[in-house]
Amino acid sequence: MSKIDLTLVRKTLIDEQVSLTVDIQNERDQLQQHVEGNPDVFDLADKRRHQEIAASRLSLMNQRVEQVRAALKRLDEGKYGICARCDKDINPERLKAIPYTTFCVSCQEQLERANR
């Protein structure tokens, strides 16, 4: 992987992990405030909708944290930037855009088509 600065990648991934961890805690705090501060019977539907949205956001953020952690592990193991499906190098531009990606564009497209 000579076309991408792995030190910069590590810093980017760690920064993303820290940012997501803060966002997750903020989302949890807001959800708790909403639950405690909204006892009105007429607002139950709004309360439920807010809880579902917050739960969905938390799930997505937790998934992203796991992806970032996995990317850091691949970096430590010397496997960063190698497609988990075809073992070819992932395009450096793709890694710059999505530093935690696991698949090259071709394999990602194949997986998305198969999951439709």
Binned, the helix content reads: 55-70%
Q: What's the overall average pLDDT, rounded? A: 89
Strand content: under 5%
Distance between the termini: 32 Å
Computed structural class: mainly alpha
The count of strands amounts to: 0
The global form is elongated
Task: Write up this protein.
The protein has 116 residues and is mainly alpha-helical. Helices cover 70% and strands 0% of the residues. It is built from four helices and no strands. It has helices at 6-36, 44-77, 92-97, 105-114. Helix 1 (6-36) packs antiparallel against helix 2 (44-77). The model has no long low-confidence stretch (mean pLDDT 89).
Question: Outline of this structure?
Answer:
This protein is mainly α. The chain has helices spanning 6-36, 44-77, 92-97, 105-114.
Topology, element by element:
Elements lengths: L5 H31 L7 H34 L14 H6 L7 H10 L2
Features:
116 residues, mainly alpha, 4 helices, 70% helix, elongated
